Amino acid sequence: MTKLKPWLPLIGIGVFAVLLLVVAPAVLSMHWINNLGKYCCWAIVAVGIGLAWGRGGMLVLGQGVFFGLGAYTMAMHLTLETAGPGSLPVFMILYDPSAPLPAFWEPFRSDAFTLVAIVLLPVIVASILGYALFKRRVKGAYFAILTQALAVALAVLISSTIRETGGDTGLSDFKYFFGFVLDDDANKIMVFMIAAALLIVCLLVVWQLGRSRFGELLIATRDAEERVRFLGYDPANIKLVAFVVAAVMASIAGAMFVPIVGIITPAEIGASASILMIAGVALGGRASLFGPALGAMAIGWGQSSLGSSWPSGWIYILGLVFILVTLFLPMGLSSLSGRAKSLVWRSRTAATAPAAASAPVLEEVKK
Amino acid sequence: MPTRVRDPTLQNRLQNSAPNRERPHVDALIPPLLNGTALGALLLLAALGLTLTFGQMGVINMAHGEFIMAGAFIAYLTQLVVTSSNISIVLALPLAFLGAGLLGLLLEVGIIQWMYRRPLDTLLVTVGVSLILQQIALQIFPAQGVPVESPGWLDGQADILGYAWPLRQVFTIVLAALCLAALAAWLKYTSFGRRIRATVQNRDLAETSGIPTRTVDRITFFVGSGLAGVAGVAASLIGGTNSQMGTQYIIPAFLVVVAGGVGQIKGTVIAAWAVGIALSFFADWTTGSMAQVLAFVLVVIFLQFRPQGLFTVRTRGLT
Amino acid sequence: MKTTRTRRARSLLAVPALAAAVTLVLAGCGSRAGDSAEPTAAAESCIDTSGDTIKLGFLNSLTGGMAISEQTVSNVLHMAADEINADGGILGKQIEYVQEDGATDWPTFAEKTEKLLTQDCVAAIFGGWTSSSRKAVKPVVEENNGLFFYPVQYEGLESSPNIYYTGATTNQQIIPAMDYLAAQGVKTLFLAGSDYVFPRTANAIIKLYAAELGIEIVGEEYVPLDKDDWTTQVSKIVAADPDFVFNTINGSSNVGFIKAYYDAGLTPETTPIISVSIAEEEAPAMGHEVTGNYASWNYFQSLQTPNNPGFIERWKAYPDSSGVTSDPMEAAYISLYLYKALAEAAGSFDVDEINAAAAEGGITVDAPEGVVTLDGENHHISKPGNIGRINADNQFDIVWSSEGFIDPDPYLEGYDWFPADVRDALVAAAG
User: Minimal Cα distance from B30: which residue of C?
Assistant: First the structure.
């Protein structure tokens, strides 16, 4: 049993993969496959947040920025692909049909550039931002508020540049996805499978990071940053890596969100959207491996089903989730299993987390 | 059905068009400077409560915007009872302070008191509270929002350097200055203020010295939230009173507190004024949207250089 | 804490395995671009017409920021459904409606549209408010060959075989307003709007038409949708001293604008405002400061038509009433009756047959604003243009009306000042 234990998370991921990639397409209707695809995107963001917040202690309230980077990268490519070579996207025509395509759009015609940009753009932005913030030891509440402010700023910026980005109405009405006709159930299932597979990959990455020396340093930084510094490591670099990985995950999620949902607007990256991305992570358990992903999916499902049958009630429930989980289960639903010591498939890092739960944030604001 | 007729009231106006109605020349810098000062005063009112709850107590109250909303709705309710807007707005100020303060007290006693050692968790909890308060307001009050009539004595403008400065803006500034003075005096000169400062600087020692820190926490939170209520009354005179109104103040208010240096009232004042001025000048030079973007990004860049804000409390402890 | 040092690079095997799985998935999949001219000819309709009820979907934001406006639309749709049911239903079938919440979130609008069409199998969907919500719904109804009835005035330059527009397009609201201003002898105009697609598009059109009419645009300002602070922009209005302000601000931001305008000493006597988003619902929240200013709509509560008094009376008596009637809610009310007229003309709930009936022409609805006629080509309806002045009761005194009803012209084809290349490019892009 003890020999098996380190591998239990991997088995869990395997089961999860089978459920998503084999069982779900077989039993769900197209409508629910689409919805599940959307939840997978939120789950990918959540896995990244779990890494940055749960294990790194950085409450990232502005993941909408990176979600938006990936989403708009993909959406610009799909918009150009739909418009066809040499044509302007429809929304640009009105303001000046004779003006050329804005220069920053041009590279997104290329499939390869788009795919590279989805990964590379968040790396660049998160590196610059993270380096500046962490080197200056901005953390805790400051960090949360600053990232949130940036998400708001980006949303407003996109809203106000209608000719360049489509503005408040965003980009929508995509017909093709890298040559595949989006209006085809087989292709929709494919897009869903890609999103689900990416979620599995992200889980594997976080699992692997958690097992590595880096994972231990990250948790150590969360719990006692000064001691890590005294040991000769630079906490800024450790946090930076986690922050960048989380940003890339959010960007990938945004990129997959676009073909699945069919629209991206600044509202999906602004303040409330960024906070909603946190909700699932808090619910599921931020420091556990599966908690963030399952929590995000649960929130997505709640919005689809409860939001239909009882709209105002759903808002109250969402509010109560924030309140009750934070009050009584700060490490989320996954810590229930730890408390009961009955479920054994939890990751090693999650098992150590409840004890450390309140420690990392002790001194942040009290200066 | 009436057909194409000329509207007589309009003709009056349109006949003595442009040349006859020359206005005095106003220096281009004056309007954004004065508007920005008024905007800064409103931001200060919104942020002043946060310097107490966030700065002094470390609670990140995301429902602060909804306390502002509560203050605005209280101004409206007061007006339903006392219909003369000249008097009701004066009555509304203490009532809004009391009402929002009680909401804050409720939040403190019900939820916050269990999580003083988890500041980031207070953020999450209060996000939930803010969602719920917004939905309640949407369901209780007319969805489109309610009118808060401004008193007659605030109609008109004061002439400042040739610019007709709206009295309502002057009122916001006076109100902010009064709240600021009262808060500063309270913290500095009363024994209670000393207790707050003692609790903030060293909770354990304060407790050992016989200061009832729990009571101190509650009263601090009450006052901080009450100030949001006062901000709400001012906001109701400037913009719409509806369930969504709080959301536009919360992020700028937090940025102001962070930029000013957490817990530093003089820093908050300078930061609020600077952000207000910046917003107005950027709006003057670019667009209202770009002004938001530039102001936010500038604050973030500023914090790169002074991560602790304008002013900091020096302590000997490690971070 | 235990140290575990020995296991590094082992589990990386799993990554290539997954990559292989993804490649497999990619290989096995459906049609590519150019495979067929018509991608999977619209999903099979699952509308159930066997029983004695017909399912319709209502899609409005009941939570979030837009609930401020959309709640009323939802309520009036319920009232219209009750009325039609009491009157015998559509083609003898009682309406059974499914109310969905768009939650002020555009992907949710897309998701709920798909749910209504494929899970609930509704015959048509009614609702939406913002252009973003419409643009989120559009691809989904087109793909599933559903029907969507959109009740709000909008920026035009759009048409879809699957959407019916019962609010005004630009030539039924913006252009009448400009005609009115020109008739009054307005020479200078200031444009103030929220920073999103409707004001930007409307102002682009206004600027073109103003050049034609010889009206000078002396300023143009935008503020984000949810922001109340208009003081700097109003100072610019004071400095520019225009004859009129054309206001395309939407939502509660209007309150901040009107208050800043009033505070700056501007009045309807000195600098009147003409608005396209302030109606009977919105005016009360602005208090007396807005009184005396103008609005351009198709419907006003004060309109003297045969059907209006009854409509107002029924709405006031309705349990979820807001107490006043206004243009967008009247357009929503029309939309359900328009669907009834279409289904009865087609004798069917089938989408293609309904579109065929529309194309034949002659579909009319005896609406509170008068008898409106559907244009079977562009799916918009004819509407009267009206300008009202806000009085102390927050009602509108009608000061100008168009001569007869204005036919809808979403692409402004009847206006030669509108650049033909833009129109052609937009029409071509819309397919």
Answer: C235
